[in-house]
Amino acid sequence: MKFVCKKNDFTNSINIAMKAILTKTTMTTLECFLIEAKDQYVSLTSNDMQLGIETKFPAEVEDEGIILMNAKVLYDFIGHLPEEKVEFESDENNTVLIFSGNARFEHQGLADEEYPRLPKVDFESTINISQFTLKEMIRQTIFSISTKENNKVLTGELFEIRDNELRIASLDLIRVSIRTLKLEENYDKVKVIIPGKTLMEISKVLSSNIEDMVEISFSKNHVKFVFGDTIMISRLIEGNFFNIDQMLKNNYETKIVTNRNAFYGCIDRAALLIKETDKNPVVMTIQDDEMKLEIKSSNSSMNEDIPVQKEGKDLRIGLNPKYIIDVLRVIDDEDINLYFFNSNSPCFIKNEEESYIYLILPINI
Amino acid sequence: MKFVCKKNDFTNSINIAMKAILTKTTMTTLECFLIEAKDQYVSLTSNDMQLGIETKFPAEVEDEGIILMNAKVLYDFIGHLPEEKVEFESDENNTVLIFSGNARFEHQGLADEEYPRLPKVDFESTINISQFTLKEMIRQTIFSISTKENNKVLTGELFEIRDNELRIASLDLIRVSIRTLKLEENYDKVKVIIPGKTLMEISKVLSSNIEDMVEISFSKNHVKFVFGDTIMISRLIEGNFFNIDQMLKNNYETKIVTNRNAFYGCIDRAALLIKETDKNPVVMTIQDDEMKLEIKSSNSSMNEDIPVQKEGKDLRIGLNPKYIIDVLRVIDDEDINLYFFNSNSPCFIKNEEESYIYLILPINI
Fold it and tell me: For B94, which residue in chain A has the nearest alpha carbon?
């Protein structure tokens, strides 16, 4: 194999393909990229057995070929090359030579034996959305997945398509995060659970340009994301997600509207008094056009009033300030709406069009 | 006690005084600031029993007084206040109240009992230098102090004044770093060892403005740094530093001059092949006007040539690339000079005027 390419192109592809490289494994091949030079492209493949990535970049291919090379070593070498022009070659013993300027790296690669290539899957449904929108929807929901492996379903996110709507949801039994997006046309029903890790990795490489699109395809056991020169295929999590519709209700007793930044600052101060050993709630007392926030720890206390616009009854409720911060951090709106039923029912944070809905269970006070 | 001040002034002083706060200690008072309001100033004192800091800021003092308050709690509270105006008060029960905007923090402070204030010391010699220069001299030598506590002397840096020269040196038995500075006048001899931790903490708060001065005073057991509204007093390390003059020699066999950036890039690539388990040297072969660098690990190798200007004999020597990187990282000169005696003697990196001198022991090849 022999090709000449640009360091920048090589580096970009390496950064993408690194997202499915295992660092702690006894299977040497899973620490490697499958590097294939063919036609006028070089492709890198990585596979951690849950997520598989294939990404390619243009090159002057002099000899087509294929080789396995340790991903971390390739990442280090290419990232440190002195010049933009890179020559890459391998011989019949799978020895890799990399030249750039006066520098010459040599590394022992491996033959392409038993490498787990991306699975061949028949995908049934496909949607196209903006990469930036998907990135945002993941960011605005991923924080409430569960990290406990004993309930596998909760370590993933629900991706549900109904008619012309995509809904993404995560929950960890104390709180729920939901984002919805109107699609351009109607689609067949889809309801799958995508591993949280897959979504975190893909959101790191998605573009922040609203005009760049990603194609998402679903099968019974896999989801595929195609964008730019990259394909990512992930296994799905088996099982049934909680019935989210059942948790949503609209007959609230109290609604308040308040300035996001003022509320964020106040809750951020309250969170200073939360310690590992000492998880007291912030107590929110809503009365007329004011909300009083109070929190106590063993040797400190904090209180603050902020103005609100209220509809409905006065109310007193206790919440974990860290959960409120998680939500406020991902909302960009100037004003936010909170809905309450009573001091024992979840607090809802949502906008009028319900493109986002957050539920947080209260703490007894 | 009661005073009103600016959040910014309070925060700056807290950031300085935090450098002598212990976080893991059984002595509660050492986790506290001593806060004293007097005249039109508030002073914060901290003391980790090696380094003591006293720093002050202007305030409208309504009631003079003194209190101990947990440093981390104060840092958190003041840093998160909503407005620039801060009101601080404490009552006879040592309860602290902090007001800013609509926010109100309360915290249980402690009485000023048995707090270890800064020691009263008679200092004998004093020099004045630029804060920026001191900061640079520390940065350019601190990396080669030893982290092994079994030889206490090597965990500090030598500060030596001879006539009109200040010399700072550190060594860890494999390498030596020396920086010298010409002083404006002649001073009495000083030769002390300052703890590395003290120097690291002070260099974090020294100004980067060449015109801001620091006064450094020495006694038998202490060193004092005075700058701006801050005093830092540190204990010295007892013992005798190695005789550095004995290590310096000028009868080199080989001298090369090379471009710093080209050399740095090359050594940085060589360092990629250094692993915890596998510490091979970079072998430098100097021949005519070229230096060839080669390094091997168990499954990779790298080599590169760079142009040099040579005086004296050809030479082949093995060095740890990480030690060369440490030196190149702190030198800003465009060209650097390396001096060699033979392949078993230290390599010297120094400039013509010897304001910096670095020695690195070679590795047998």
Answer: A299
- For residue B269, the chain A residues in CB contact (below 8 A) are 77, 80-82, 103, 105
**Chain A within 8 Å of B25 (Cβ-Cβ)?**
no
CA dist A178 and A350 (Å) reads 9
Subunit contact B305:A102, Cβ cutoff 8 A = yes
Window A:77-116, CB contacts with B under 8 Å: 77, 80-82, 101-108
What is the tens place of the pLDDT at every residue in B57-99? 999 999 999 999 999 999 999 999 999 999 999 999 999 999 9
Q: In the numeric block, which tokens belong to residue B339? A: 């001096």
Q: What is the mean pLDDT of chain B?
A: 95
Q: Least CA distance to A109: which residue of chain B?
A: B299
Q: Tell me how far apart the alpha carbons of residues A231 and A151 are, in angstroms, rounded to a whole number.
A: 29
Closest in A104, A302, A303 to B302, CB measured: A104
Strand order in the sheet with B290-296: A60-63, A2-6, A85-90, A95-100, A103-108, B300-307, B290-296, B282-287, B315-319
Is the Cβ pair A103, B299 closer than 8 Å?
A: no
Task: Pull the structure tokens for residue A97.
Answer: 């030579």
pLDDT for position A95: 97
C-alpha distances in angstroms, A203 versus A14, A33, A113, A179? 16, 21, 31, 15
Nearest alpha-carbon partner for A100 in A122, A121, A89, A84: A84
Phi then psi dihedrals of residue A280, to 5 deg = -80, 145
B105 contacts A293 by C-beta, under 8 angstroms: no
Encoded tokens for B338: 């390396």
How many Å lie between the alpha carbon of A198 and the closest alpha carbon of chain B? 30
ipTM of this complex prediction, to 2 decimal places: 0.89
Nearest Cα to Cα of residue A274 among A306, A303, A298: A298
Facing residue for B300 by CB, picked from A101, A107, A302: A107
Please indicate whether, in this complex, the C-beta atoms of A73 and B300 are within 8 angstroms of each other: yes
| Chain B contact set for A272 (CB, 8 A) | 76-77, 80
Bin B173: left if φ > 0, else alpha if -120 < ψ < 50, else beta. left
Upper half-sphere CA count for residue B135 (Cβ side, 13 Å): 17
**Rounded CA separation A15/B223 (Å):** 49
- List pLDDT tens digits, range A151-196: 899 999 999 999 999 999 999 989 999 999 999 999 999 999 999 9
Chain B contacts in chain A segment 209-268 (CB below 8 A): 265-266, 268
- Phi, psi at residue B242, to the nearest 5°? -60, 150
Q: Which of A80, A101, A104 is closest, CB to CB, to B303?
A: A104
Phi (first) and psi of residue B272, to 5 degrees: -60, -25
Name the minimum distance, in Å, from the CA of B165 to any CA of chain A.
40
| Cα–Cα distance, B133 to B141 (Å, whole number) | 12
pTM value is 0.92
Q: What is the pLDDT of residues B12-59, one digit of tens each?
A: 999 999 999 988 888 889 999 999 999 999 999 999 999 999 999 999
SS3 A85: strand
Partner-chain contact B103 A306, CB within 8 Å: no
What pLDDT digit, counting tens, does each position of A219-247 carry?
Answer: 999 999 999 999 999 999 999 999 999 99
Q: Which residue of A has its CA nearest to B273?
A: A73
